[in-house]
Write a structure and sequence with these properties.
The protein is built from 15 helices and 14 strands. The protein is α+β, with helices and mostly antiparallel strands. The chain binds zinc ion and manganese (II) ion (MN).
């Protein structure tokens, strides 16, 4: 793949680094025993520690650390001895006036993430930090400017986060979207986060810049904050990159700043001018000891690592013969286990994967692997046409059951091929001119015959068998 984004004007390339914040799915917060849950009544999951009251001290959550290290290993990182640090700044949703994070000695460093098409993105670090509370600006359009007043909910303050920082090695919008999807899939597969972008338990910021094609300089970047879907990430990056190109081409230059994505307007807007690390006056957190993971602990994490999405795609391709893109879709939907179980029960791989990709986007409902396998075999064996199989599948998803019974109840009788041949012969006899064109190699007329046969059989004929009969007749 070339470096230039397909959407950028000739001569420019895109440079993107992504920062993904993922809330860890622990029962309690990072430094106190308050529940870590989404959607509770505001300011009910709080205590002196996560409210930053004087005299309160942090106590580290062991599970959060284990989850962070597990994620680090899943991203192929080194898991290091690490030190917590205070990142100092004022914002009303952060009651201590500093965030406990990690700075120069983060837990995970130097990882890599392979995208479904094989492109590899370097991971600079994946460090542990606490989340902030949540501000709501009431009145106006929800932004702070123009609001009548603001409310703060501290339920989220102190929830454990991992911030995954990629290297600026992403050069197309497609790879940026694939990267975010892959991170989400890894978070889900490892169980360390529920990774719900719409609930904010996974949030992505994009650092975007452009440069002349062929150059390796890093120009001024803008950071686009908290875009809340994979699709929006793509739109926001594309908008921002084009804005930079326009600025350079008209003799100007972007300035380093934080920008916000406005989904309805389809544009980014200027936020605050971006701080450098120096502005935060980082220093080592005096109330927490360094984290020193034992080698045995990391070995145990590796031992217990579930199969990750990349390996699951390979496995699905192996057993079903499907292509990379379809495998990526099926694994992303977490439906690869169903496909593999159905194949193990004797189902037909290509037919099963075809149905998953095309007909199970809304979930599998009551469908089980046994019934799914049986359905695929009825279809391959010609007992059901593909249209009928799709209808039976929908019924299995909504109310379960055995595909043979469901098909019989729907009146989908197996159409034996001698019956079908009679219908084909009658159709040929009634349309001699069309048939001659078919025999002379006019492939377009094939659809006419198939359509007429489907009509005559009210969709019960198997398209594959119809084509076989037509071919056989034309060669006899
Ligand atoms: Zn608390
Ligand atoms: Mn952060």
């Amino acid at each position: 793949m070339t470096e230039s984004a397909t959407h950028l004007p000739e001569g420019w390339s895109l440079v993107v680094g992504l920062e993904v914040h993922a809330e860890l799915a622990t029962n309690t917060k990072l430094f106190c025993g308050c529940p870590n849950e989404f959607g509770a009544e505001p300011n009910t999951n709080v205590c002196p520690t996560c409210l930053g009251l004087p005299g309160s001290l942090p106590v580290l959550n062991r599970t959060a650390i284990e989850y962070a290290m597990k994620l680090g290993r899943a991203l192929d990182c080194h898991v290091n001895s690490s030190v917590f640090a205070r990142k100092n700044y004022f914002y009303p949703d952060m009651p201590k006036d500093y965030q406990i994070s990690q700075y120069d000695q983060p837990t995970n460093t130097d990882g890599r993430l392979a995208l479904p098409d094989g492109y590899v993105v370097g991971i600079e670090r994946a460090h542990i930090e606490e989340d902030t509370g949540k501000s709501s600006h009431i009145g106006g359009d929800g932004r702070i400017s123009g609001a009548a007043y603001s409310l703060v909910d501290y339920n989220r303050a102190g929830v454990p986060l991992v911030e995954i920082v990629s290297r600026p090695e992403i050069h197309t919008v497609e790879h940026a979207k694939a990267y975010v999807s892959e991170v989400r899939a890894i978070l889900e597969a490892t169980g360390v986060s529920d990774a719900k972008m719409e609930e904010g338990s996974m949030r992505a910021d994009a650092n975007v810049s452009v440069r002349p094609e062929g150059s390796d300089e890093l120009r001024t970047r803008c950071e686009i904050k908290n875009v809340n879907s994979v699709r929006s990430i793509g739109r926001a990056i594309e908008y921002e990159a084009l804005r930079h190109v326009d600025l350079y081409e008209s003799g100007g230059a972007p300035r380093q700043e934080t920008r916000h994505w406005d989904e309805s307007a389809g544009r980014t807007r200027s936020g605050r001018s971006k701080e450098d690390a120096d502005d935060y006056r980082y220093f080592a957190e005096p109330d927490l000891l360094p984290l020193v993971p034992a080698g045995a602990q990391i070995a145990a994490i590796d031992e217990a690592m579930p199969l990750l999405p990349a390996a699951r795609r390979v496995q699905l391709i192996d057993v079903s013969g499907t292509d990379v893109e379809t495998a990526a879709l099926v694994v992303e939907r977490q439906q690869d286990t169903l496909a593999i179980e159905a194949i193990e029960r004797g189902g037909d791989g290509p037919t099963l994967v075809k149905h998953i990709a095309n007909n199970l986007a809304d979930g599998v409902g009551q469908l089980d692997a046994e019934a799914f396998a049986a359905l695929s075999n009825m279809e391959v064996g010609g007992e059901l046409s593909s249209t009928q199989a799709k209808t039976v599948l929908a019924a299995l998803v909504s109310s379960g059951g055995e595909p043979g019974d469901v098909a019989a109840a729907m009146g989908f009788e197996a159409m034996d091929s001698s019956e079908l041949e009679t219908i084909v012969d009658a159709l040929i006899a009634a349309n001699p001119d069309e048939w001659q064109r078919y025999c002379d190699g006019d492939t377009k007329i094939q659809g006419f015959f198939v359509g007429q046969i489907m009509k005559a059989t009210r969709g019960q004929a198997d398209g594959k068998v119809v084509n076989q009969i037509l071919t056989a007749r034309s060669q006899s």
